[in-house]
Design brief:
By secondary structure, this protein is of the alpha/beta class. Helix content is about 20%, strand content about 30%. The chain contains 3 helices and 8 strands, in the order E-H-E-E-E-H-E-H-E-E-E. The protein has helices spanning about 15-25, 55, 80-95, and strands at about 5-10, 25-30, 35-40, 45-50, 75-80, 105, 110-115, 120-125. It has a 4-stranded mixed sheet. Strand 6 (about 105) and strand 7 form a beta hairpin. The radius of gyration is 15 Å and the shape is globular.
């Protein structure tokens, strides 16, 4: 069996968050979605679970961070080429994301960042290992 990753994010509105991620090209998996959660597939191995604050709180013993004011992690998605990087960023921005900082070009890696409507930080990266020294 191939390992999968499920990223669990607390969201203020499952419907708003689901709409945002669908506009980015993620696919909703209805079998794992309801009024309190939505399972969004980025790829066959990467899923984003969007959970209401009440549902998210069932799995933790700490307060939920206010991601509009604080950062606790940056989630990164890799893409096959720079064209896909810019296309995914365009989709995110059109869906309501903001771009909190300028693009980064390290020669071997291109990187852009966005913040989703709930304040979660994401990076979209393309790495060309043939350009590593």
């Amino acid at each position: 069996m191939t390992a999968k990753i499920f990223i669990n994010l607390p969201v203020l509105s499952v419907n708003v968050a689901k709409d945002f991620y669908q506009k980015m090209g993620m696919i909703n998996i209805p079998e794992f979605s309801d009024d309190n959660a939505a399972c969004m597939m980025y790829s066959g191995e990467i899923y984003v679970m969007l959970l209401t604050h009440n549902k998210f709180a069932e799995f933790i013993s700490k307060p939920i961070a206010n991601t509009k004011q604080t950062a606790s992690m940056i989630l990164s998605l890799s893409v096959e080429n720079t064209e896909m990087l810019h296309l995914l960023m365009q989709k995110a921005l059109k869906a309501g994301a903001t771009e909190p900082r300028p693009a980064i070009d390290l020669g071997f890696m291109q990187q852009r960042s966005f913040e989703d409507p709930d304040g979660h930080l994401w990076e979209v990266i393309h790495m060309d290992t043939t350009k590593l020294q």
